[in-house]
Design a protein that fits this description.
Layout: E1 4-7, E2 10-12, E3 18-24, E4 30-39, E5 46-52, E6 57-59, E7 67-72, E8 77-82, E9 91-100, E10 109-112, E11 116-120
Parallel strand pairs: 2-11
Antiparallel strand pairs: 1-3, 3-8, 4-5, 4-9, 5-6, 7-8, 9-10, 9-11
């Protein structure tokens, strides 16, 4: 079973920084995109940042200029550098991968990590 292993969450003070990492436990035949979503208590899960195979990125308006997503295709790993963190960034952050595990899988599927808690508080 595919696992997306996340790391890097924790407690940080406002204006601090954290770097999240997410690695797939196996190689994929193809990956369309990888990204990060977050869910705060009482709110719906929302897209934070996403990066395609070709390197195109998109960000939630609330994190533009503060967060940077990057990926290492060779390692099937995606990173999220989070700077100038705010209390409203507090949430569980989930890694997402959209791709085909094997060549015989004709359509791409979404895979999710277990989530890592990010808490921004003084």
């Amino acid at each position: 079973q595919v696992q997306l292993v996340e790391s890097g969450g924790g407690l940080v003070q406002p204006e601090g920084s954290l770097r999240l990492s997410c690695a797939a436990s196996e190689r994929f035949f193809s990956i369309n995109a990888m990204g990060w979503y977050r869910q705060a208590p009482g709110k719906q899960r929302e897209l934070v940042a996403r990066i395609t195979r070709g390197g195109s990125t998109n960000y939630a308006d609330s994190v533009k200029g503060r967060f940077t997503i990057s990926r290492d295709n060779a390692k099937n790993t995606v990173y999220l550098q989070m700077n100038s963190l705010k209390p409203e960034d507090t949430a569980v952050y989930y890694c997402n991968l959209n791709g085909r595990r094997r060549v015989e899988f004709l359509t791409a599927a979404d895979y999710w990590g277990q989530g890592t808690q990010v808490t921004v508080s003084s």
